[in-house]
Design brief:
This protein has 16 helices and nine strands. It is α/β, with parallel strands linked by helices and about 500 residues long. It has three domains: about 30 residues; about 190 residues; about 160 residues, Heat Shock Protein 90. The strands form three sheets. A five-stranded mixed β-sheet has the order 4-6-7-9-8. A two-stranded parallel ribbon has the order 1-2. Strand 8 and strand 9 form a beta hairpin. Helix 6 packs parallel to helix 8. It starts with a helix and ends in a 6-residue tail after the last strand.
Length: about 500
Amino acid sequence: MKISGISNTFLEKLRWFSIGRTFARVKRKWPRVSFRNFSIPSRVGAFSQKSHHFLEEIKSLGFTKTMDELDKGKLSVFNQLNFFQFLTGIIIPLICFFGNSKFPLSSFLLASLPAWVNLVVLYLNFYFRYEAGMIIYFILYPVMTSVVYMTGMNLGVELYFILNGILAVFFLPLITHMLFAVGLSMVSYFVLVVLTSHYDYQLHANNMFLFLFNQITVILLIFYALFLIKKENSLYLFGILATNKALQETNDKIEKQKAEIEEKAAELSELNSLKNKLFSVISHDMKTPMYALRNLFGSIQQLKMSGAEIKAIIPDVVTDLNYTTGLMENLLHWVKSQMNSASVSPQPIDLGQVTGEVINVQQLQASSKKIVISCDIPDQSMAYADRDMVTLVLRNLLSNAIKFTPDRGRISIRLRPDGPFLKVSVVDSGIGMSAETIACIHENNYYSTYGTARESGTGLGLMLCKEFLAKNGGSLTIESQPGNGSTFSFTLPVFAENA
């Protein structure tokens, strides 16, 4: 006995020694492992994360890339409800089986039949056999639940008939199928619950807690199903509204782009028409002064013309050259404006000085027709505008006045204050214009006629005048009557220091 006691004590110490060495080896192998890593909050967090991931996997059973959002939402709700029905359908029979000797294995197997229907549905959805899963659920589930009641067991699952009918309304697309499923569930509920009251095994009599748990679970599932259905419908409708809004915005952009394209097309068509007319004018009018010069120098070379004869021809050649020079300047400015390179550089300019320079340039053309040009512009009449553009405007207006004024006519240039503007008027005693002609000029209809001495014109000058005045904050007005001359007036902003 003594040896035996010693042996037992020795073995016990040896066992504890071996456990200590094993723990030491584990600690050396994983030195960073501590019991704090296995705290309850961390385990709860890990379990919650895994549960959420598992539920997401259940919800997405059977999803495909070709499914739209509505079908995915319906399948997600259907998967969740089948999963929760499986859990409740298998847990209650298990508790009854292990907690009650009067609940045999055969009763457990019968009571769990509806749960296995849910599992089969999830299996079919996993393999994309959605229609088969729907048929089995909406037919076999109420049938299997009815079998449980007909075998003499009332487990308090009668509300599942109601849930089945609600889901049939939402999931079954065909009215006939929906009516059949709802009718099957409601007839089963009425016959097995309302008309039949005696069962061999009633859960509420054996375990009231489980009975209440079952009832509350079914009620929660019904509300959960309604919540999920509403949520999916709301998300789908929200998606439709968002898509419609995006489509509307896209359509608005397309309409805006279409309007811009049509506007650009109209502008291009107008410019193309103007270009064709200008090329026609250039091809005709640019030849005139070149031919005049060629004929002049040819005559000088071949006929040995005297100085008096040459002097008599010179004014006509100068007139043609002046016209050609003005045409070239207008063309260059027009090309720059169409290429958006004619930038405006406003600065203080003395309109009296600019007008004097323009008169000096045009004096020879006026002298050839014995036209008198007078200027009535006060000193230091300062405007704020682009000097080159204003010079072109004055040159074109004065050139036009000379062109349409007969021999021995008069042209006056006047300046008057007009509020925050200076108003410059070029008044001639020429042939005047009709209202239709003035309308054509305002509409940029490329209007041009021959002058009193058969001077040519392109109609481009007045177009440039209007465009350049607009860029400088001014405007052009025309007053005229046939036979009573014309008055072309334009306004420019007053220089601030002179306002």
